[in-house]
Amino acid sequence: LSQEDINTVVAWVDQGAPLGDPADMPPPADLRATDEWSLAAEFGPPDLLAPSSPIDIPAAGNDIWYRPIVEIQGLPENEERCIKALQVKPRGDAVTVVHHANSTFQLLQDDGSFRGTGARATEYAMGKLGEIIPDGVCRRIPAGSHVRWDIHMYPGGLGATAANDVIEDNVVELGIWLHPADYEYEYRQDLVSYNFMEGQRELLLPPNSGFMTQGFRSWDHPVRIDSFQPHGHLRLRSASLEVFYPKTGRTEIIGMVSNWSATWHQSHIFEDQVAPLIPTGAVVIMKQWFDNTSANPNNPDPDQWVDYGQRTADEMSHFWMAVSHLDEEGYEKIVEEREAAEEEQRIAVSN
User: Fold this and answer.
1) Which residues span the domain enclosing 134?
2) Domain check: are 241 and 341 in the same one?
3) Residues 251-304: tens digit of each pLDDT
4) N or C: which end of the chain has fewer CB within 10 A?
5) 3-state class of 274 per DSSP?
6) What does the DSSP 8-state code read for residue 40?
7) Number of structural domains, the chain?
8) What span, in angstroms and rounded, lies between the C-alpha atoms of 246 and 279?
């Protein structure tokens, strides 16, 4: 600022910081309603719906876990399908009390019990808008599936818009957009939680201090990372994703999340042409940094030791990653296609 600008600000503060002319204010931000399907503008309304059965959430109390199994509305009978996109959406005020909502596919057995399929639909945590699966791969819905919810709720809510009131008939909805029945694909994609520190059980944050965790993952076949989402609670502040290439000794940063907040989880989706390709044997390095001090605005009590746990007041350290599992031929094909596209772009720029 110039000295004249500084003098203007100081004079304004000395006058009690009065409001200026309202006509000069910018228009209010056009924010999407939290009760809307965020992907509807691109894909239209969901093809399938799987709302949880309703449950009342008290205004205060301990964390609540709710695990109903529900039918998928609109699912074609006896037909496995591939998912194009998904979104989990708490209804109304429930958005502030739903800490996370995981969903997996289950099959009804002849005796009335349910059996897991090993297929995960998606994962939701506060603020997440949805997931888009890239073309050419399939995250599947097994034929005849139901959805098993694992919903963690925090009575009273979290964040500036927390209801701090009883929420009746709390429902969490899963919307699924499908590929056509004749959709062709080459590879499977899955969404997996990759834990740090031997299942996170060693996680322990001392009072008034910072803390860092690391996790490592490699595969016996090439993969493509289509999206990643760090997960933590109130003390997590930043996270990074790196790749170490043993053949060259090179380490590459492929993702970084700064100023992380527990009220704004996101699935960071890579564009197709830059989604990281991980060769066989390369090591993905996942890092997270925690701030258990008073400098962290989300920290309820910096004087506490914070252990691993499921409650909102506890802490976690893992990444959700959507991974497409390739073979060597598919890996080389994608590499060649990208190199050809880059060369074409260089020629276009030079001309």
Assistant:
1) 34-185
2) yes
3) 999 999 998 888 888 899 999 899 999 999 999 999 999 999 999 988 999 999
4) C
5) helix
6) H
7) 2
8) 10
